[in-house]
Amino acid sequence: DASEQKTCPASWIVFLGIIYTFTYFTTDQYVPSLPQMKVDLAATQSLMSLTVQMNFIVKALFGLLAASLSDRIGRRPVLLFCLVLLSLASFCCACAGRIEWFFAARVLQGIGESVEPVLFAIVRDYFADPRERFGIVSVLQVMSIGGMLVAPCAGGLLAELSGWRTSFFILAVIWGLLATYAWWTMVESCGEGESASYLKDLSRILDPHLLCLLLTQSCIMGGCLTFNANSSYFTQVTLGGSVMMSAFVMLTFGACNSLGALVTGNCCTGSIFKVSKV
């Protein structure tokens, strides 16, 4: 009912944006340190690169479950669980002594980062108008892009000053603070309307138009992840550069991607709204 439309405080938009930003920051911040981490964790280049790509695979798979689960038990418990898990997983990453433990902690981080579709579900709960909702999602995207640009430099700087584990300890604290804030302030936004079966929810993804978009996005992300997972090795091992040089390469690559996304978004807004109605 339009008259009962819930209002969303501006602080919550910022809060959702911070969570969305740090789901990407968590990975991008340690990529410049991969060569040193390979030595510290007694790993190989392939395994260290896999910790980057595998995280996104886990996040994608569990995202399907988290989104549907939040429709049934509510946004609040799913969000709180994921934030607490991210705090614990980040702490485990910082304490890992071997690649096996780090790999397991990254899997847990991927499960925690599956909160991403729940964030957009919360936006949908509060903003019924598609254009208004698109504007809010754009704000979240801008915040996440900013985080992705800053992450390599921040992680690289901390790695040079005090080691790569420091950034994971800091992330554990940040995720813990976000979980505490959500515990005290979050109000359930999902109504108690009829819920369809999980298989029916999943079948929406099999729509040919949406499936094509998902596959296209997968190809784009695959190229980006391959670059990110190996750029630090190329910069430091092949070219003999520093950690900060790797961070600068990632910053430049991210800035070019952001510029392209901005131009595309401004040129194709009408088409985006048309596709969103499918």
Automatic annotation (TrEMBL):
Q: What organism does the UniProt record list as the source?
A: Symbiodinium necroappetens
Transmembrane regions: 7-27, 47-66, 78-99, 134-159, 166-186, 206-227, 239-263
Query: Which GO molecular-function terms appear in the entry?
Result: transmembrane transporter activity
In the bilayer, the protein is annotated as: Multi-pass membrane protein
Q: 4Fe-4S: is it a keyword of this entry?
A: no
Question: What is the protein name for this chain?
Answer: YdgK protein
Q: Which UniProt keywords apply?
A: Cell membrane, Membrane, Transmembrane, Transmembrane helix
GO cellular component term, pick one? plasma membrane
Q: What is the gene name?
A: ydgK
Keyword Membrane in record: yes
Q: Which domain of life is it from?
A: Eukaryota
Tell where it localizes: Cell membrane
Where mainly found? membrane
Q: Where is the Major facilitator superfamily (MFS) profile domain?
A: 12-278
